[in-house]
Each structure stands twice: as structure tokens, then as C-alpha cells.
Amino acid sequence: MEKKTRERKPRMEDLIPDPKKRTEVLSRLYKGDPILGEGGIFTDMLQTFVNAALEGEIDHHLKDQSILSDNRRNGHTHKLVRSSAGPLEVHTPRDRDGEHEPILIKKWERELGTGLDDIILSLYARGQSVEDVRYQLRKLYGVDVSAGTISSVTDHVWTEIIEWQQRPLFPCQTIVYLDAIHYKVREDGHIISKAIYTVFGVDVHGERDILGLYLSENEGSRQWGLILEDLKNRGVVEVLFFCVDGLSGFKDVIEQVYPKSIVQRCIVHMIRNSTRFVSDKDIKTVCADLRKIYSSADRQQAEVALEAFGERWNARYKEIKPKWVENWDELMAFMDYGGNIRRMIYTTNPVEALHRVMRKVTKSKGAWVNDKGLLKQLYLALKYNEKSWKRKSFNWMPIHRELIDKFGNRYAEYVVQ
Q1: How many of the other CB atoms lie within 10 Å of CB of 219?
Q2: What single string gives the DSSP state of each residue in 316-333?
Q3: What is the pLDDT of residue 384?
């Protein structure tokens, strides 16, 4: 039986062969010198390694040519290169014939491939301004990056955003949540409020995804109609449920584009609107009585609970019951389904959770310079926080079985795709 050989752990001598350099590094470590940044211990080591590697590259190049040519070394070029460990002084060897092309750091490169662009995007995605990013890079890595460079790095994302906004979509969405969030943007010397329209979908496999972010001056049903047309053009053929807030005309524009879809008005939004002018001493009791309506077993029991609510509160808050009566069909659409589907469609909370991610990284901003800057910030924030909004949270198998039972082939034909 073969003996297993233990893999030897690397020692200090392997990492730093030069005894003098090794002693110097240990001495600086014990003194508490910084590890990274300009003049940092690791930065110095990395600089030594990079320059040694470049020397090795030209040695290999000249060795290959030694038989056919008398090409030889011809000094060095010197430049300062950015890296996530700090700035490096690089001395690139030259050859007499000018044929040597360095591989590690090419002739015109000013950055060692250590993912500095990714660091910039990550910091920007967390809501930091260009100046904040500059400060963090200087403080953490000793790298001085201009505002123009940072803007250039983030601008590269714009092509990715356009492709993302125009990508084809899965043809059947089980539910689509529609909601908007508002931001201040500078335009023509004025600061105006603009709406980001968020379309958040769950497909037939229970997978969540942001189907689109759209920017416009004001939230309105006409704009939502244009957005739904865009979804259709990008491949969304079927939507079983839409969950929306109480925006006037919402149901009409949805039915024009997706006439078979069921429109559920958000219960949570309705409760907020209903209790806006309820006094503090009554708020808990009023909410408890409203809960009896939407937690009923079926529509008939819900109607009984609504009548009971009216008898108790009409004298004090006469405006609440008529609001529920006027929007009854949209509010009670979820009553025709089992508990799992009810929990999925009765509120726009999933898209509001997405908006919380967006607000978290933008709460310190007064106003954006332009639309492009706002969309870049939101896109990167969502991209770098996918785990918080993309995970499944519904008990999908019972939902799947009920959807097949209720919608038949209209739903089932897309499951196998």
C-alpha cells in the first residue's frame, strides 16, 4: 500500500529567498509597519516580485533568440503602476532590437491586473460618490486615482445596462409586481423629482428577477402601459397575476396589454391609505378589524367582516368602507386561491424589499447630476446585492400544483422550457 506523502507547508525561506530581505520584512512586521499601501511591506515585496518576473521574461526572450540573433539587453524603462496593494515602481527591461513584448505588464499598461476596476465598482455600488471612492482607494490601498478614471470605469457599465434592459425575457411570469420609487435629479439647472419604475417578476420555476428599471418624470398609468408593451416586445407572452398599488387606471392599462391576467391590488397599500387619518388611539383596533376582512376564509366571509367593520366605524371614519367597496374585486382577487398563492400575491412587499436595497445605497444623496448617474448607481447596487433579493422565499411545490390545477396548459406548457 502506497504511503501518503504529506504536502509540505510553504516556509518563510520559500516566500522570501533573500536572507537580508527576509530579515528586513520580519523587522518591519514587528515594528508594526503598514502591510498595504504606499511603502507597505507587501507592496515592497510585490514590487520586487514584479520586477524579478519582468527580468525573467526578457531572459527567456533573449535565450530563444540566442542562436539566430545577437539581440541583447538595452537598459530599462521606468513607470509607476497602480495596484490594489499600492503604487509600484516598475523597471521594464528593453532589448536592442525592440522586439521584446512584456507579458506581466504590457508596454502601455498602468495597472497591475489585480481587480482595481472591480474594487471601484464595488465601492460605487455601495452608494459612495466618486470622491468617496477616491478617498477609500487612497486610504486603504495607497492608490491615487483621478475622478475622471473612476467615472470612466463606472461608465463602462453603461453598455452592460443597455444590454440588460433589452435582454429577452422568459415567456411566462407567474406574478409581476409593479411599483415605483422617486429620486431627485438635476435637469436644465433645476432639481426635479423622477420615478424609477420597477418591474419584479417570478417565473414558472419560482425564480425571481428584475425584469426592468425604467426612468420617467412622473408615475402614471400611461407610462406603465408603455412599460408593459416593452415587456411584451421582449418576450413576455403570459402573466398570470399582477400585484399593484392603488394608482388610478392601473387595471385598465394592464388589461389592454395582458387581458387574461388577474390584477391584485396590494392589501398593505390599501390599509395604509385607509388608516391615514385614523387617530393614534384607534389605529390598532381599526387595523385589527381590517385584518378580519382580508384574512377571511373566502369572499363571503370577507363581505360579512366588511359589513361588521362599517357598523362599528362608519360613524367615526365614514370614508374607509366605501374605499374597500369601490376596489373590492381587485382587493379580493387573492381569495380565489389557496394559502400559498395568497401569501405570494396579496402584497407588493417583495418589490418594496427590493426598493429598500436601493434606498440603502442612495439615502445619503441629495440629487443626482443626471439620469445616467442614477441608473448606474441603482444597477450596480442591485447587481452587488443579488443575494438579498434573488433568493426563493415561496414554498414553490404546492404553488406549482395549484397553478397547474387553476390555469392548466396556460401555465404548464412553459414549465418544461
Answers
A1: 18
A2: T-TTHHHHHHHTHHHHSG
A3: 83
Residue 114, classed as helix, strand or coil, is coil
Q: In 10 A of CB 375, how many CB atoms?
A: 20
144 in a structural domain? yes
Residue 105, in any domain of the structure: no
Whether residues 64 and 204 share a domain: the answer is no
* 292 Cβ neighbours under 8 A, 6+ residues apart: 305, 308, 309
Q: Answer for the pair 196, 213: CB distance below 8 angstroms, yes or no.
A: yes
Question: Which candidate, 68, 118, 75, places its Cα nearest to that of 98?
Answer: 75
Out of 105, 133, 155, pick the residue that ends a domain.
155
Q: Which three cell numbers stand for residue 414?
A: 412553459
Confidence tier at 85 by pLDDT (50, 70, 90): low
Max mean pLDDT range (61-65, 206-210, 366-370): 206-210
When the pLDDT of each residue in the chain is averaged and rounded to a whole number, the result is 84
Q: What is the pLDDT of residues 148-185, one digit of tens each?
A: 777 777 777 888 899 999 999 999 999 999 999 999 88
Structural domain includes residue 87: yes
Q: Judge if 144 and 219 occupy the same domain.
A: no
Residue whose C-alpha cell is 438579498: 388
Same domain membership, residue 184 and residue 325:
yes
Domain extent at residue 319: 169-415
Tell me, yes or no, if the pTM score tops 0.70. Answer: yes
DSSP state of 82: B
